[in-house]
Amino acid sequence: MKRLHLYYCILAAALLLTGTACHRTRPQSPSNKTAATDSLRLQYVLMQQRLAEEADRTVLAYVRRQPEGAFSLGEFGYWQQRTLRTERPDIDCRQAVGVHYRCYDLSDQRLLLDTEERLIPDKTDCMLAIRCALKEMHYGEEAILVVPWYLAYGQQGTQGVGPYTNLIVELTVTD
Fold first, then answer.
1. Does residue 100 lie in a domain region?
2. Does residue 146 lie within any of the structural domains?
3. What's the CA gap between 173 and 86, in Å, rounded?
4. CA dist list (Å): 9 to 1, 15, 21, 22, 99
5. Full-model pTM
6. Which terminus, N or C, of the chain has the lesser number of Cβ atoms within 10 Å?
């Protein structure tokens, strides 16, 4: 009888141990990943990409209508034509420089903005295409830029220039 009682105790202990060992905790999702995709944000990003691709096609179509070789594609994504070159020193982008620029709507060639100001290319909140162009220019030079909206005033626009507006910019470095 004592042996039978010992067997029952061993059997009960084995059942208890195997019963608890089989219950594992469920794996958890990584904390840096969301379970559900933010579909609204994804749709917004896709819409912005489509608008940028359309802007690139529109700008390229304008450039192709110009005489061959008139414009060259800059490394930052805008088209440029130097209308006046000088042998003066390069612009120091850390110092204030005088610029005059006129912005025209690419679709109807309407003057939207005519501005003369002093700005520091590395620190100023002017349009990205102007800041990039100034890094390649010399004092006294003039250039025409064909700029897609995302390198100009973007989706907010500015006073006189609406959002998502592709531009032609006549840029002159005055000093």
1. yes
2. yes
3. 11
4. 12, 10, 18, 20, 94
5. 0.74
6. N
